[in-house]
Amino acid sequence: MEIARPRLPWWLLLPWWLLWIAVPVGGVILLLRLGFRLIRRYPISVAVPLCGVALVRYCGWWWLVFVVLALVAGLLIWGGLYPDPCRRYAVLPVLSEWRRATVYAFRWRTVMRLADLVKRDRGKEYRPRLRAVRAEGWRDRVRVRMIPAQSPEAWELRRDNLAHSFGARSCRVRVLRPRVVELDLIHRDPLVRPLPVPALDVDANAVDLKKVTVGRTETGKPWRLRLLGSQLLVVGVPGAGKGSVLWSIVWQLAPAVRAGLVRLVGIDPKGGMELGQCPEAFDRLVFGNGADVVELLEEIANEVRERAARYRGIRRLWAWDTGEPLTVLIVDELADVIAYQPDKQLRDRAARAVQTITSQGRAPGYVLVGLVQDPRKEIVSFRHLFTTRVALRLDEPQQVDMVLGDGVRQRGAAAHEIAESTPGVAWVKQDGQREPDRARAFHVTDTDLEVLRVYVTAPDATVHPFPTRPDNGERGVAA
After folding, report:
1. 391: closest CA among 381, 382, 401?
2. How does pLDDT run across 294-349, given as a tens digit for each residue?
3. pLDDT at 289
């Protein structure tokens, strides 16, 4: 018979007189540790009852009633005058402690065991430790300390299990530092309502080409795209909101376009159904996918080479003081130009020109904004040349990894689950960024495009002179 040898705790071997001393001391230390943990994790829940007991003990019940009424009145006035600070500093901390106690701490041990995130070794159980819980209304940020020899991939594979276990719609996993991950448990979508476009800025110098605001992220921060030194690929099925991203970029660049600091070049294979809504914003605009489109692409590719040759030995990245405008090439339905073109010779020429622009245009100041519906490799074989990729609503889960990179879908970037009623919602990922961002572009209506047309064609528009271009003996500073 195989039996386990009984193991006695080491402290039973101590002398009886030492136990009489150690037991009270150990009890006091245990109570202090429990009290410290309770205060650290539930400061409001501990402080409020203690203050209430002290107030009744030294002042009486009437003082407690008066203080409670005064606090309630103060919170109501604070919330009416300054709702955001009140929500941030008063409502959300209380909600965080409530959800930690009633949702996560209450179920944590059972969920970790049933999700196979607990390990046993030599009779000892190793369980992930629940750290901070921050409720933000639409999501809960749960910080977890992993057990030794556990990887974040183990949590990514159990996202759906954790979401259903804690009553959330979805779960995302983010790595904060070694052995610490944060779970974003989503309860509702903060990007349901469309976002109106902001007012057009009249100051061209206020346009920051490294931070072009085209919408808002789900955390409430501005959604900024980097155009200078970047190439942008936007992928989405019909009706996903590619036009919202496109026109949001044009809308924000309008002051610089009007001043002559940015040049827009457009290609619309759909005969002008999209870019033809405001052709006045473009310096050059070609419709269809014929020979004239290929000639325009080759012309831009030659400009890239010529400008790069002029910058050789002077600078490594385009800047305002070059005396030349930043060129933004917008290609709506890129696949019609490089994949669906029936003429093989034109198709190959277009693909070579686009590859030249995306691979060499970053430094001399040429940005390609390509919009496409099908992200497969045989359609866009050079997706890796686009440093910023935007995934709108997609058809299949595999397409998420095609657009944003391998393993992104496991971390929660569910672009295939975006609702049809929320066009413009997208997942965004830039090179060097592990976690993608979820955002929604501005909703640009036909009325907004009329305003844009009037703005760029206004008779009082002035072209600002560029700074003097440095000569060959003066080297520009790399941006």
Report:
1. 401
2. 999 999 999 999 998 988 888 888 888 888 889 999 998 888 888 888 888 988 89
3. 81
CB 364 within 8 A of CB 329: no
CB of 7 closer than 8 Å to CB of 122: no
Angle between helix 242-258 and 446-456 (nearest 10): 20
Q: Are 220 and 246 found together in one domain?
A: yes
In this structure, the answer to whether residues 263 and 362 fall within a common structural domain is: yes
Which residue's structure tokens are 């276990």? 165
The two beta strands, 212-217 and 222-225, are antiparallel
Distance CA 363, CA 312 (A): 11
DSSP per-residue string spanning 220-275: SSEEEE--TT--EEEE--TTSSHHHHHHHHHHHHHHHHHTTSEEEEEEETTSSSSG
- Distance from CA of residue 196 to its chain's centroid? 20
Q: How far apart are CA 361 and CA 324, in angstroms?
A: 14
Query: Is residue 115 predicted with pLDDT exceeding 80?
Result: yes
Q: Is the dihedral of CA 373, 375, 376, 377 positive or negative?
A: positive
Q: Dmax over Cα atoms in the chain, in whole Å? A: 99
Of 78, 73, 102, 106, nearest to 91 by C-alpha is: 78
| β-sheet bridge partners, residue 233 | 370, 389
Q: Do 292 and 419 have their domain in common?
A: yes
Q: At what angle do helices 92-99 and 43-58 cross, to 10 degrees?
A: 110
User: Which pLDDT band holds residue 473 (cuts at 50, 70, 90)?
Assistant: very low
**The amino acid at 173:** V
Does some domain include residue 16? Answer: no
Question: In this structure, is the dihedral angle defined by the CA atoms of residues 28, 34, 37 and 39, taken in order, positive or negative?
Answer: negative
Residue type at 233 in one-letter notation: L
Spatial contact of 470 and 321, defined as CB atoms under 8 Å apart: yes
Whether residues 63 and 145 share a domain: the answer is: yes
* Per-residue pLDDT tens over the stretch 416-471: 889 888 999 999 998 877 788 999 999 999 899 999 988 888 766 555 555 544 44
- H/E element, 185: strand 180-186
Residue 332, in any domain of the structure: yes
CA dihedral 32, 36, 37, 41 (to 10 degrees): 160
Does 253 share its domain with 286? yes
Parent domain of 76: 39-186
Q: State the DSSP code for 182.
A: E
